[in-house]
Design brief:
By secondary structure, the chain is α/β, with parallel strands linked by helices. The chain contains 16 helices and 11 strands.
């Protein structure tokens, strides 16, 4: 049965690739926003199935990758305080800052715990009342509801030894920033299906109208991505620029409205720095005034801390779709998963990590 399913999938993939070839008449550059989509494209060689006119650019849809260096430094500094128990998802522990990473802090004696839910960190705070438990709240709109619920529950239950180091970013402002750049070459977008499952896709409609760019909400399986590319190319060839939903099995236009209400209650929209990109206005979430007592930056006096990005890493150009990972001089030599220069090499959704794992040698790279 597995063989039959794989055969059917392969046949459908060929059909989509042929359908794209049948409609394309000129070169187009399409950006997939999500790092999960990037890994699927590289792992399964989806770009190799496409006609030469189609270029896929990898976007800033990896929340670990876009977390700025100064937030990593703040996390390390907070974790090293003797009264702190620092909780995080595992993918943040290897991300390098200027002062090392959370793994190196743990090696120095920091109490760093890997958790699988922000509510696990709330439980730790309840179980260890003499410790200051800090959770590293990183992510796009996808993880914002769970992180909001953790803060909401901590306040409701009077847990004062809990706080969050927030690095939430929002997708639509990042798309607008890319389209507004003089270096932009992207003509269509595959929007991240999991983000739209939470937020819906009404926010993308003004962007499609203003910039005359098609946006297709797309899933993560190879066939999802090929269908999303087909829908996007068809719009480009027909001169249309609207939002379409390929991922209809999971995404509704209005999204998850109760989750959105919780986000609005706990968080507020703020400017946010993106690693390698710089500050994008109204592109992040920070705790609202009603929940500001749970802000780890304020609690530990780190709100004014800033640091410059390391110059050798070109992750900013990669996250904007301007460069591919193999075009970095340090790729696979001075920058590897064991010795990363930037987060795109260590994140499970990072483009550099995908190229290193699946296309380590430059002659294997699909141009």
């Amino acid at each position: 049965m597995k063989f039959i399913d794989e055969y059917r999938s392969a046949e459908l993939a060929k059909r989509y690739a042929k359908a794209i070839s049948n409609v394309v008449t000129k070169p187009w550059t399409i950006m997939e926003v999500c790092g999960g989509q990037t890994h699927a494209i590289v792992k399964f060689g989806i770009d190799g199935l496409l006609p030469k006119e189609i270029t896929l650019a990898h976007g800033p849809g990896c929340p670990v990758c876009v977390t700025p260096v100064e937030l990593i430094d703040k996390a390390v500094e907070i974790s090293l305080r003797p009264e702190v128990m620092f909780a995080s998802f595992g993918d943040m522990l290897r991300v390098p800052g200027t002062k090392g990473d959370l793994f190196s802090a743990k090696a120095k004696g920091a109490d760093v715990r890997i958790v699988y839910s922000p509510l696990d960190a709330v439980k730790l705070a309840k179980a260890f009342p003499r410790k200051e438990v800090v959770f590293f709240a990183v992510g796009f709109e996808t993880t914002a509801p769970a992180n909001a619920m953790a803060v909401y529950q901590a306040k409701r239950n009077g847990i004062r030894n809990f706080s969050v180091l927030v690095s939430h970013v929002l997708v639509p402002p990042a798309i607008k920033a890319i389209l507004s750049s003089p270096k932009n070459r992207v003509q269509g977008f595959l929007a991240a299906g999991h983000v739209c499952t939470v937020m819906g896709y009404t926010e993308y409609e003004p962007i499609a109208r203003e910039f005359r760019v098609p946006i297709v909400v797309t899933g993560f399986e190879p066939l999802d991505i090929l269908q999303g590319v087909f829908m996007c190319v068809k719009q480009l060839e027909e001169g249309r620029a609207v939002v379409e939903n390929q991922y209809a099995r999971s995404v509704r236009k209005q999204g998850n409205e109760p989750a959105q209400a919780l986000i609005r209650e706990v968080f507020q929209i703020v400017p946010r720095k993106w690693r390698g990109v710089g500050e994008i206005p109204e592109s992040g979430l920070g705790l609202s005034e009603a929940f500001s007592m749970f802000d780890a930056e304020k609690k530990f006096g780190l709100t004014s801390y800033t640091v410059e990005e390391p110059p050798e890493c070109i992750s900013g150009l990669i996250l904007q779709g301007i460069k591919k990972p193999h075009e970095c001089p340090a790729f696979g030599t001075r920058c590897t998963p064991e010795r990363p220069l930037g987060a795109t090499m260590v994140s499970a959704e990072g483009a550099c990590a995908a190229y290193f794992k699946y296309r380590r040698w430059k002659d294997e790279v699909v141009q």
